[in-house]
Amino acid sequence: MIEFALWMAIPYIVIGLVFAFFGAERVQLIETQLQTRLPAGADVAAYGLTALIWPATLFGVDVCVMCATAIRICEYSLAGVRPVGF
Fold first, then answer.
1. Which terminus of the chain has a smaller tally of CB atoms within 10 A, N or C?
2. pLDDT tens digit string along 11-28?
3. 50 close to 20: Cβ distance less than 8 angstroms
4. What value does the CA radius of gyration of the chain take, rounded to a whole number of Å?
């Protein structure tokens, strides 16, 4: 079962990396949001996030809003505070 999951992950990752390579403007938008929180690796993290969430962008989900919300939720959970509306 694990082997099957790994074989299925290969095309997902390859398509995501190609999608991130040709969607440089999305990578740059995510990188600007990550710059204040992760100054040393914002470019690599933005490329990785774009490669991982490529199916959502095909359906028109605004990636920047989605990433900003995820970052805010992580910050709240690290601080031990439950955000309003979640």
1. N
2. 999 999 998 899 888 888
3. yes
4. 15
Question: Rounded to an integer, what distance in angstroms lies between the CA atom of residue 51 and that of residue 27?
Answer: 9
Is 81 a residue whose pLDDT tops 90? Answer: no
Buried/exposed 6-45: b ≥16 CB within 10 Å, e otherwise = eeeeeeeeeebbebbeebeebbebbbebbeeeeeeebeeb
Encoding tokens for residue 13?
Answer: 């990752």
| Contacting residues for 11 by C-beta, under 8 A, at least 6 apart | none
Claim: this prediction has a pTM higher than 0.70: no
Sequential DSSP letters for 30-52: HHHHHTTT-TTTHHHHHHHHHHH
Cβ contact 50:30 at 8 Å: yes
